[in-house]
Amino acid sequence: MTTEKLESTWLLVLTEIRARIASGEIQGGTKLRASHLSESMGVSRTPLREALVQLEAEGLLVRERSGYRVRSFSIAEVYAAIEVRGAIEGLAVRLGVEQGVVSDDLDAMRDLLAALDIAVANTDIADYASLNSQFHEIQANLPRLSFVADEVSRSYRFPFASPSAFLSSEDVNTVGFANLQEAQTQHRAIFDAIANGQATRAEALVLEHARIAQTNIKQALNKMEGAQMPPQLSLVS
Predict the structure, then answer these.
(1) CA distances in angstroms from 93 to 28, 53, 143, listed in the order given
(2) Residue 62 contacts residue 69 (beta carbons within 8 Å)
(3) Residue 232's closest CA among 88, 60, 13?
(4) Tell me: the pLDDT tens digits for 25-57?
(5) The pTM is what?
(6) What is the DSSP letter of 223?
(7) Per-residue pLDDT, 7
């Protein structure tokens, strides 16, 4: 296998396992062995081992004698991760506003807000999740600084910290669609602050917006008896 092919396979394996953990498909406490994963994923052990080492460095896995175990996270760690994500996103937005936001970004955000309004009105969760991710991606890139965007992206890797956490139909049934309506109201407030050059206000609003994820988790943990637990919560100890 060429070096280029090996690197490509490693990144694909890394992304796949990370997504399975973040979604709850691979639950907290699950033991992962390279031999089993290699067979089930149809990849060689070399790129798989590289991916597992990276996931250990990211804090998602714990190394054991016979392989790796998926970490479980305390609720305090989860809430802190969301705060970190909000703080980094807020920093990106403030830097972007202070440097001057380009009109193309404002136009793109304005178009996304209109599309998000339609998704909310139609209770289209899949469309909302996709548009929401695009909105947050623009925020991260407002300063036109790649290392800032990279740090924002890295903050999304922690379970529950991603802007699209709890954005499946099942999850919304658990935490309530009203939270998405509130999130959209906040999107518009963030956009107004950015468009008006209010850097500090925009930063504060972005952090407040991130905390909706904390509310979603609290509501899911306090769900009515018999309701289906969102699979991501299997990672919370």
Answers:
(1) 33, 32, 7
(2) yes
(3) 60
(4) 888 889 998 888 888 888 888 888 888 888 888
(5) 0.77
(6) P
(7) 59
Quickly name the fold that domain 75-230 has.
Four Helix Bundle (Hemerythrin (Met), subunit A) (1.20.120)
* pLDDT band at residue 169 using 50, 70 and 90 as cut-offs: very low
Residue 69 gets which letter from DSSP? E
- pLDDT (tens digit per residue) in 49-66: 888 888 888 888 999 988
Asked whether 26 and 32 are in contact (CB, 8 A), the reply is yes
Instruction: Report domain 3-70's class.
Output: mainly alpha
C-beta pairs of 38-42 under 8 Å, 24+ apart in sequence: 41/13, 41/16
Domain ranges (residues) in the chain: 3-70, 75-230
* Spatial contact of 220 and 166, defined as CB atoms under 8 Å apart: yes
Reading the block at residue 226, the tokens are 């018999």
Q: Which amino acid is at 5?
A: K
